[in-house]
Amino acid sequence: MRTPISRLRTIGLYEGISYLLLLGIAMPLKYMAGIPEMVKYVGWAHGVLFVLYMLSVLEVTLAHNWSIKKIAAAVVASLLPFGPFILDKRLLKDEENKKEAPVRQVA
Fold it and tell me: Does the structure show a pLDDT above 60 at 91?
């Protein structure tokens, strides 16, 4: 987690997992089994991770001059159940493409 992108990817993965836990386990336990405690704890953790995710998007935006389109994609990804995982895959692909691109030297 040395770079803004790596922090965003890591936080995004945890945020995505917490969202899936909230939707897939905690909410059904609350409404089908009458156990609301899971929503309280998983929801709290997800809320903290969501705020960290948004702060990380801001950090990446400032560090890499992200366009409005990339910012919007990151925000929309946080609202979709598997969105952070899709964003992570795209960020990883972008990083790999940057490493593979030949460096132009000025003579």
Answer: yes
The model's pLDDT over 53-89, given as tens digits with 9 standing for 90+, comes to 999 999 999 999 999 999 999 999 999 999 999 999 9
Integer Cα distance of 49 and 10 in angstroms: 11
Alpha helices in 1-107 (DSSP H): 4-21, 27-33, 37-64, 68-79, 83-100
Could you tell me if residue 65 is left (phi over 0), alpha (psi between -120 and 50 degrees) or otherwise beta? left
Q: Name the nearest CA neighbour of 17 among 41, 49, 52.
A: 49
pTM, two decimals, is: 0.84
Phi first, then psi: give them for residue 4, nearest 5 degrees.
-55, -40
For residue 98, give the amino acid letter. K
Residue with tokens 């990883």: 92
Pick from 48, 49, 46, 58: which is nearest to 4 by CA? 58
